[in-house]
Amino acid sequence: MTQALYLTGVLAAEVEVLDCTSCEDGRFAIRLSATPFHPQGGGQPSDKGSIAEVEVVHVAIEQGEIIHYSSQPVALGAALAKVDLNTRNYHSRLHSAGHLIAHVMHLFGWQAIKAQHWPSDARVQFIPLDTAQQLDGETLQQQCSHYIQANLPTHLHQHADGFREISFGEFPAFPCGGTHVTALGDIGSIEIQSYQFKKGKLSVSYSVAEEVA
Fold it and tell me: What is the pTM of this model?
């Protein structure tokens, strides 16, 4: 099984290319001994980058294996696997923003039940708890801005059994296998694009700038 280096924040590593197979769609499926690439999953898109200077266009988990899809074949043996930093940072900021929204909403009595952190469609869905308070998108955005400005640090807890948790400052930890910013100030800003309650569930759509000034 491929060692998941991305779980500890690794962005580049010398790895072993174990297999490279051509696909019907013209791409090549590559299996590595270890990988810094975050595969698509957990509501987060996959990393992009390169293996031995060959472009990696997508990474997925298939039948328990991490598969890297490239535009060209890669020779078996030792190679440098390198994540595209701009894409990783953007996805990390989106993912951390979704967690922060969930934390803030929990303070007002709302429980997150589903989330996705896609650049074109980032959203978190909630159900009300007994302590739920009414608020709106503007208030939520202001609350998120407060914690971003406070620049709460990210705490990563990797347990021996593989279970992984993420928290910010004194907020409680959430189980998560995704990538995140090192502190909330790295998010830049969060824009709440829609805040809709329907059929007993609240859906919050949001975005962050692709680059931080």
Answer: 0.93
